[in-house]
């Protein structure tokens, strides 16, 4: 039996990674998040919890839908990203949008049935299966009857080229000593079956799931590397000692070459877009 997946590390983020995420996530996570919002009918006046809000780009967009009388709370365990998120609270959103440190598994500061909608965009893969169930139970508790949970992100039913490359390289010498089970720091992407059964177990009455296949287009291999490393807030290189990281990153960049299409790079990713109903 493979060992259980390790919990994600939250102490590896840096100001540089947080800023890189802010600069690059518009091409990937924000796009997927906006597709997810189109499934959630967020109207003015809605109360929305954005769980794992990162640097707050999607939460600010949600706040523009829920304003002026709605309320949007973004929570995230990474302080550096919450600091960047707070900069998005423009004067017209100051009564609508708030950001706090927090994790999906513990929403105890929020009362029962206090939100219309909860959003988890590119967050589920960072939770172990046990944490995913705890999170879904908490979300079920804080949603009003008829409330919706939107979940989106990399699909566990499909291969993700970035994490296949990572697995191939980190499983070789000299890196593999630091990467013994292929799971350290890797996102635990959820499958549609697992999400359906976990949401049922958490109490949701029904759910719908579909897949989307956006192409990720960037101009340089360096930008690709920045996207994956900043999305993983320091977890992408596993437990590799810092002196080995540059060599491993060079090998990854070499593999990215196969996605070159003329002057740009293009990678097809499959995302899962799901809504669960209370
Ligand atoms: C790829 S980013 C997505 C950020 C944002 N949702 C977006 O759409 O840009 C993943 C985020 O999930 C957060 N995260 C990881 N584990 C979490 C947990 N247990 N509870 C809440 N958020 C978590 C990370 O801190 C990180 O900001």
UniProtKB/TrEMBL annotation:
<dbReference type="InterPro" id="IPR050508">
    <property type="entry name" value="Methyltransf_Superfamily"/>
</dbReference>
<protein>
    <recommendedName>
        <fullName>Methyltransferase domain-containing protein</fullName>
    </recommendedName>
</protein>
<feature type="domain" description="Methyltransferase">
    <location>
        <begin position="48"/>
        <end position="147"/>
    </location>
</feature>
<dbReference type="InterPro" id="IPR029063">
    <property type="entry name" value="SAM-dependent_MTases_sf"/>
</dbReference>
<dbReference type="Pfam" id="PF13649">
    <property type="entry name" value="Methyltransf_25"/>
</dbReference>
<dbReference type="InterPro" id="IPR041698">
    <property type="entry name" value="Methyltransf_25"/>
</dbReference>
<dbReference type="GO" id="GO:0008168">
    <property type="term" value="F:methyltransferase activity"/>
</dbReference>
């Amino acid at each position: 039996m493979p060992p259980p997946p390790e919990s994600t590390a939250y102490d590896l983020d840096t100001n540089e990674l947080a800023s890189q995420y802010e600069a690059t996530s518009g091409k990937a996570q924000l796009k997927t998040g906006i597709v997810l919002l189109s499934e959630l009918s967020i109207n003015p006046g809605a109360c929305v919890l954005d769980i794992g809000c990162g640097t707050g780009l999607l939460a600010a967009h949600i706040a523009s839908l829920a304003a002026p009388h709605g309320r949007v709370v973004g929570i995230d365990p990474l302080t550096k990203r919450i600091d960047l998120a707070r900069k998005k609270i423009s004067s017209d959103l100051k009564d609508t949008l708030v950001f706090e440190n927090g994790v999906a598994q513990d929403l105890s500061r929020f009362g029962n049935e206090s939100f219309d909608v909860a959003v988890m965009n590119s967050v589920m893969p960072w939770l172990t299966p046990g944490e995913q169930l705890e999170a879904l139970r908490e979300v079920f508790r804080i949603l009003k009857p008829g409330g919706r949970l939107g979940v989106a992100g990399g699909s566990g039913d499909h291969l993700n080229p970035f994490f296949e490359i990572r697995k191939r390289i980190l499983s070789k010498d000299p890196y593999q000593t630091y990467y013994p089970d292929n799971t350290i720091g890797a996102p635990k992407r959820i499958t549609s079956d697992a999400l359906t059964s976990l949401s049922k177990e958490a109490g949701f009455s029904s759910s719908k799931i579909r897949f989307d296949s956006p192409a990720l287009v960037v101009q340089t291999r360096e930008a690709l590397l920045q996207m994956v490393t900043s999305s993983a807030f320091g977890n992408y290189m596993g437990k590799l000692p810092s002196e080995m990281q540059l060599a491993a990153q060079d090998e990854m960049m070499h593999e990215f070459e196969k996605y070159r299409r003329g002057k740009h790079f293009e990678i097809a990713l499959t995302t899962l877009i799901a809504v669960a109903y209370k």
